[in-house]
Amino acid sequence: MQNVLYVWRDVARRISASRRVLLLCDYDGTLAPIVDRPELAELPKRVRQLLQTLNAQRKFMVGIISGRALDDLKGRVAINNIIYAGNHGLEIEGSAINFVNPLAEEVRPVFRLIYQVLGKAFQHIKGVLVEDKGLTLSVHYRMVPEEKLDDVKTVFESVISIAQSLKQVKVTLGKRVYEIRPLVDWDKGKAIDLLIDRLSNLKGNGETLPIFLGDDRTDEDGFKVINQHGGIPIFVGNEPGDTVAQYYLSSPYEVEEFLNLLSSDVIREY
Q1: Is residue 270's pLDDT more than 50?
Q2: Does residue 109 share a domain with residue 88?
Q3: Are strands 232-236 and 91-94 parallel, antiparallel or unpaired?
């Protein structure tokens, strides 16, 4: 796997040769650095400007796809006329698309109940944050002392096991976070597939080059779909490890550099 900045000219030629580019980015750990509390993760001003510049070009369509709730994501990014996909793509808003996964919507009351139970179960463990995102839940434990991590796992598994036995939820592990999602056949990869299809229908015939930047395990489904469409999947992180992404960037700071190259080299050439 190569750092995309080191082979920029080769990547730039692929992008320049494409009629359209669908540029999709995760938020936390990709556009914005990871922080202890999710409400403190701010989009750098320069990154916002670069995304706006790219989206204003006829060649590009920009989208943000995140585990965050849709309204939270829109409020943090605050760019008009781009695609927003929240809750791992369970809810999407953007050009010619307004989508909420109907099966996920059906179990919303179940998630409200799980949120209440988890809040009470974790009230005696300092540093745990249970986040209600409507269609999904997140249990953040980045601020929990190391000696309490086993307690977090025990409490979490005891609470969530009932819902899992009823075939209502699935759990994925992120960076010091448990992600609780509806047990539906949907993920970031399927959301990206839907967006590529809608963009092709919206813009007419011709190939769309999809690019997806992500930093977590939940982004692997997206990388797989990008590969299937002949696109450019980019893992963000110091240790790419076991990923199907073809390229990597070491940090959100290198993501900013990548976006700057896109907006300067490709747009000028185009």
Answers
A1: no
A2: no
A3: unpaired
List the 169-174 sheet strands across, edge first: 129-132, 137-140, 177-182, 169-174
Tell me, yes or no, if 28 is annotated catalytic.
Answer: no
Select from 182, 204, 239 the last residue of a domain: 182
**Strands of the chain, DSSP E:** 2-3, 20-25, 60-65, 83-86, 91-94, 97-100, 129-132, 137-140, 169-174, 177-182, 208-214, 232-236, 247-249
Contact present, 235 and 58 (Cβ < 8 Å): no
In this structure, the answer to whether residues 80 and 151 fall within a common structural domain is no
Q: Which two tokens stand for residue 192?
A: 């990206």
Residue tagged active-site, from 26, 187, 216, 221: 26
Residues 203 and 241 in one domain: yes
Q: Which of 30, 70, 46 is nearest to 191 (CA)?
A: 70
Q: Three-class SS of residue 35?
A: coil
52-67 mean pLDDT: 93
- In this prediction the pTM is 0.87
65 and 199, same domain (yes or no):
yes
